[in-house]
């Protein structure tokens, strides 16, 4: 088994770049996954893992063997505490980090059922909000997630952490607003844009046919493009003194209303 004990090791330096730099992740087509649960979900989600680095003081060889028991051609490297702390992003330590290959996020690669339910996020910048919505999409078993005009790298370590691994359990695609709208219209998927302008209450709509619920940033909301191309603009009636809520909370309300209408089953 290989061992690396120096943070000056060229391979370790390259992994630090993956952890810190979007450009490095995009150029290499790889990213880091930290934690047993996240690695397990990535493997179940069909992600290719090239390398596992582990700290034997935290995770045993037996635990590691169980984690990657059904995987092949994974390079396993034992590291020391100094190297692990250099690479680890999270405060909690599980002693294992993986190097994985990014998946395609092309719209045409989405595999959709007859009447899909899709969440579209337009220009969401905060990784924590994206991660929270991915958790909701997993919980509600949404068919696909589309990031329109994405402002955040999908494999940002904070996004992976905040999604608690749900980045690996959802089908995710990206595209410009124009590309996503054209895709939805071509697939005859109704667009419901969450916005205050010219809207009807969300619970009055029928989401049992193919539907895409679109949410935007808390600061500026959805762009005019999405308002103009919606089959219907929808809003959540606010009962207090403010006129908006956290985007991840709003998305959860809208998606679970759609799932309620569908009998909490995939149609």
Structure write-up:
The chain is of the alpha/beta class and 267 residues long. The chain is 34% helix and 21% strand. The protein is built from ten helices and twelve strands. It has helices at 10-20, 22-28, 36-44, 61-67, 81-87, 127-140, 157-162, 177-186, 224-229, 247-261, and strands at 2-4, 30-34, 49-54, 75-79, 96-101, 117-122, 144-148, 172-175, 190-194, 199-201, 211-215, 232-235. The strands form two sheets. A seven-stranded parallel beta sheet has the order 8-7-6-11-9-12-10, sandwiched between helices. Helix 6 (127-140) links the parallel strand 6 (117-122) and strand 7 (144-148). Helix 1 crosses helix 2 and helix 6 (127-140) runs parallel beside helix 10. The model has no long low-confidence stretch (mean pLDDT 94).
Features:
267 residues; alpha/beta; seven-stranded parallel β-sheet; five-stranded mixed β-sheet; 34% helix; elongated
């Amino acid at each position: 088994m290989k061992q690396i004990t120096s943070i000056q090791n060229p391979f370790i330096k390259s992994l630090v770049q993956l952890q810190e730099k979007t450009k490095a992740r995009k150029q290499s087509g790889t990213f880091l996954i930290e934690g047993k649960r996240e690695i397990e979900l990535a493997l179940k989600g069909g992600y290719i893992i090239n390398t596992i680095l582990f700290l034997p003081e935290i995770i045993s060889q037996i635990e590691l063997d169980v984690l990657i028991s059904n995987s092949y051609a994974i390079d396993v490297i034992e590291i020391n505490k100094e190297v692990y702390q250099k690479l680890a992003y999270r405060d909690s330590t599980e002693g294992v980090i993986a190097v994985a290959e990014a998946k395609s996020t092309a719209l045409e690669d989405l595999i959709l059922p007859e009447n899909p339910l899709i969440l579209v996020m337009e220009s969401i910048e905060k990784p924590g909000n994206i991660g929270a919505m991915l958790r909701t999409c997993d919980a509600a078993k949404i068919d696909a997630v589309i990031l329109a005009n994405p402002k955040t790298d999908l494999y940002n370590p904070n996004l992976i952490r905040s999604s608690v691994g749900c980045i690996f359990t959802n089908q995710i695609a990206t595209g410009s607003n124009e590309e996503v709208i054209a895709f939805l219209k071509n697939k005859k998927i109704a667009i419901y844009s969450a916005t205050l302008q010219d809207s009807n209450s969300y619970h009055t709509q029928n989401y049992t046919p193919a539907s895409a619920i679109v949410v935007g940033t808390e600061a500026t909301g959805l762009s005019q493009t999405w308002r103009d191309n919606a089959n219907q603009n929808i809003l959540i009636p606010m009962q207090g003194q403010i006129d908006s809520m956290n985007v991840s909370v709003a998305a959860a309300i809208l998606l679970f209303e759609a799932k309620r209408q569908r009998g909490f089953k995939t149609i």
